[in-house]
Amino acid sequence: MDNLWFRCFGPPAESDAVRLVCFPHAGGSASAYAPLARLLTPRVEVRAVQYPGRQDRRRETPAGDITELAGRIAERLRAPGGRPYALFGHSMGALLAYETARVLRSWDVQAPVRLFLSGRGAPSPVPPRSDLLPDDAAILAAVRSLGGTGAAVLDDPEMVEMALPALRADYRALAAYSWHGGDPLDVPVTVLNGRDDPVVTAEDAARWAEHTSSTFEVKEFPGNHFYLDQQAAEVAGVLTDGLRQAAGR
């Protein structure tokens, strides 16, 4: 896989491990998945996507379009005959994982064995109000309101200056995105959500069922939008079970 776009954390995976491709949240980077990777390897090979404009790619221009970014990622996943793989995305990453799967389907290449979609309501023609943020102050306020360990860096002006370009681009991309229909994916879907998420309700999560013709389930966890920070072991268990089922293990 493309070393520019994917980061691998934890010990080497076993030769027959299922690959889990992880998509970070808005403003996030591949390293957000390092704790989860350490819990899943070596039975699962975790590859986290590194979007342009952050960490070691910070000198690149952040992507400003969800569908275009999904196409660029899909291009690097399309190799036929590879090991079984699944997609996991949190928040904005859930939308990117879904759109990446749709691009791959349009190319008629090896499909993921399962989608894990976390912390994001199902797409619709109208962007959620939480995506429509008019300026940097509103973006920073929204990030603070979501909590999570990353919100603490917003108290450091230098860190804010470094984080803002990616955050700004990601929220603009989310505000510009709209879903215009299409056939459901024929891929099993597991939706994960925090019970106290301030922007994703249980109803929002359940509407993902409309986007698959295969099996569907919702897993709810204690916590807010970034429940993953506190529930990593429990999430790892759900991912492991879902991958085992989807890969016929």
CATH superfamily name?
Answer: Alpha/Beta hydrolase fold, catalytic domain
Q: Look up the CATH topology.
A: Rossmann fold
| Proportion of helical residues | 25-40%
**Helices and strands: which structural class?**
alpha/beta
Strand content: 5-15%
Query: Strand-and-helix sequence, N→C?
Result: EEHEHEHEHHEHEH
**What is the number of independent domains?**
1
Give the strand order of the largest sheet, numbering strands 1, 2, ... along the chain.
1-3-2-4-5-6-7
- Rounded to the nearest angstrom, the distance between the terminal CA atoms is 24 Å
Anisotropy-based shape: globular
Instruction: Kindly state the number of beta strands.
Output: 7
The CATH architecture designation is 3-Layer(aba) Sandwich
The poorly predicted ranges are none
Q: Please compute the radius of gyration using only Cα atoms.
A: 17 Å
What is the CATH C-level name? Alpha Beta
Q: How would you characterize the largest beta sheet?
A: 7 strands, mixed
